[in-house]
Amino acid sequence: MTDAKTKAAATSAVRGRRSASFLNPGLVLDAAMVIIERDGPDALTFRRLGIELKADHTAVLRHFGSKDDLLIALADRLMEEALASFVPSENWRETLLSLARRIRSAALAHPGVAVLVAARPPRQAEVLRAADAAIGALRQAGLSARDAAMYYLVLADASMAAAAYEAAIVSLDSGAREGDQRAWRRQYLTASPQKYPHLASAAQHLADVNDQDEFETLIGLLLDAVELRAQTHTGNAGETERGGT
Amino acid sequence: MTDAKTKAAATSAVRGRRSASFLNPGLVLDAAMVIIERDGPDALTFRRLGIELKADHTAVLRHFGSKDDLLIALADRLMEEALASFVPSENWRETLLSLARRIRSAALAHPGVAVLVAARPPRQAEVLRAADAAIGALRQAGLSARDAAMYYLVLADASMAAAAYEAAIVSLDSGAREGDQRAWRRQYLTASPQKYPHLASAAQHLADVNDQDEFETLIGLLLDAVELRAQTHTGNAGETERGGT
DNA sequence: ACCTGAACACCGTTCAAGT
DNA sequence: ACCTGAACACCGTTCAAGT
Question: Does a structural domain hold residue B184?
Answer without folding.
Answer: no
